[in-house]
Amino acid sequence: MSQPRRIVSEGRTPLDPEDYSELIAELAPSVHSETVAVHEAIGRTLRADLVADRAVPAFPTSAMDGFALDGPALQEAQRGTAIRVSGDTPAGHEAALLRPGAAVRVMTGAPIPTGAEAVVPVELTDADQTGAAPQTIRISSLPQQVANGWNIRAVGEDIAAGDVILPAGSRLTAAGVGTLAMLGIDEIDVDGRPRIGVIVTGDELRDTAAEAAGALILNSNLPMLASAIRSTGAEAIEATCSDDPNALRAVFDELAPMADLVITTGGISAGAFEVVRQTLEGEHSTFLRLGMRPGSPQGHGRLGRLPLLHLPGTPQGAFVAFHLFARSLLEGRPLRARWKKGLYTGSELGQHPHAVKVRPGAFTATGEIRAVDGARLPNFAAAEVIIRIPRGTGRLLPGAIVDYLEC
């Protein structure tokens, strides 16, 4: 059975959140392969290089609505001669025959007839832009030198056969999905969605207002964390548990075959009814206090091969810890690499001499970062970002560069 990494923090400065994120990086859930339909692939991560097995376009096509002319016709057009129109080719139809010294009307995306050297935009001719093709056209103006292939998209101009379009590890955007469809790919191998178990502990929790009477309270952590898990593209497996260690062990046994990672909330402090700590400490998990406010109590470990991440039970502590630590695991990026830089504005924020503080914030109309009052869950509900305030004895002042995460 694997043993958790021990941390001795007595007499030492508590870990910053960035150091803790790197410490638990090995708990990132293992990635499995999954084949999905292209129209369901947005946001998914490619398992292998995407290599084009065909050229796009596969045949020369017109880049404009206009007229395809061969070399002799272009020369006559330069002299102001009327050019006979020998055919008409809408997009999606076979190319019309281009007779020597003549033109074929072509629409954008239509195949170019054999022998054509250029497409003259309809706007440069005396032809109507709609209606039937004319019998002849005159061209009002042409460049003195018309390059061969003018307004003609060559075979493979967008994609050449054998091109690596997207490397393995790329996250598919809408444009990526469109590119897959352009290549005629119906299914694609992607990283499977991690299956994340979330266990919210506490005798005091109830799911409905009708049940939450007297000393009982509503369970906000479970819907909050399950929603946060799903927002990352992972699957959430929801569970609740009392403060009975035997009941918690039973929940772990139930989740172990299904989950790639289990997150717990609550039961990790130093009180008398800390069920997660009492059940797992020593043999399976390590618990500690970080130099961070809110969300100081944290824990991590393994139950057999199942990675475990233990978050505090306060809603604001669980929310912050999820965004700092769980998201880092799910994204495969340490917290230190995830912070973004912004220009701080608004009221001054005091530092804590022994802890990194995190506060809710929002963007101003000009893209700066301002603080949102308070640090409770309703304050984070009004936030767009989490602001990092480093340890110290001073204050974060307007005009300072501040670290933040979007939430």
Would you write up a description of this structure?
The protein has 407 residues and is of the alpha+beta class. The protein contains 9 helices and 27 strands. The protein has a 6-stranded mixed β-sheet, sandwiched between helices. Strands 18, 21, 23, 24, 25 and 27 form a 6-stranded mixed β-sheet that branches. The N terminus is likely disordered.
Give the tags.
407 residues; disordered N terminus; 27 strands; alpha+beta; elongated; single chain; six-stranded mixed beta sheet
**Radius of gyration, rounded?**
32 Å
Beta-strand residue percentage: 25-35%
End-to-end CA span: 36 Å
| Uncertain residue segments | 1-11
**Overall mean pLDDT:** 92
- Quaternary structure of the protein: single chain
Largest sheet: 6 strands, mixed
> What's the helical proportion of residues?
10-25%
Number of helices: 9
Total beta strand runs:
27
The strand order across the widest sheet is 15-12-16-20-19-17
Shape: elongated
Strand-pairing-aware structural class: alpha+beta
Note the topology:
Layout: H1 17-23, E1 33-37, E2 50-51, E3 61-62, E4 66-69, H2 71-78, E5 83-89, E6 103-106, E7 118-121, E8 136-137, E9 152-153, E10 164-166, H3 174-182, E11 187-191, E12 195-201, E13 205-206, E14 217-218, H4 221-231, E15 235-241, H5 245-255, E16 261-265, H6 275-280, E17 285-289, E18 292-293, E19 297-303, E20 306-311, H7 315-331, H8 335-338, E21 340-343, E22 349-350, E23 356-363, E24 369-371, H9 377-381, E25 385-389, E26 395-396, E27 401-406
Helix pairs in contact: 4-7
